[in-house]
Design a protein that fits this description.
This protein is of the alpha+beta class. The protein is built from 2 helices and 2 strands, in the order H-E-E-H. InterPro entries: Emfourin (IPR049457).
């Protein structure tokens, strides 16, 4: 799947996660911003991510960032 498909699958522009980071050595917090034309959204979510579609997007973006 490509990024745009993953964004659509998790309905990124209609979600509004803004979680306060949880303390813990293994916990990660992700801040994701997406702009597509007039649609813009920024979310912040911490591990564990329970929404499977959102977790797939985070996994994709994490792998992509390691290649840079």
């Amino acid at each position: 799947m490509k990024a745009k498909e993953l964004v659509q699958k998790c309905r990124f522009f209609s979600i509004s996660y803004n979680e306060v980071p949880q303390r813990g050595a293994d916990r990660k917090t992700y801040t994701i911003s997406v702009t597509d034309g007039d649609n813009k959204n920024t979310i912040r979510v911490s591990d564990p991510v329970e929404d499977e579609a959102l977790a797939d997007l985070i996994s994709f973006l994490s792998k992509l960032s390691r290649k840079v």
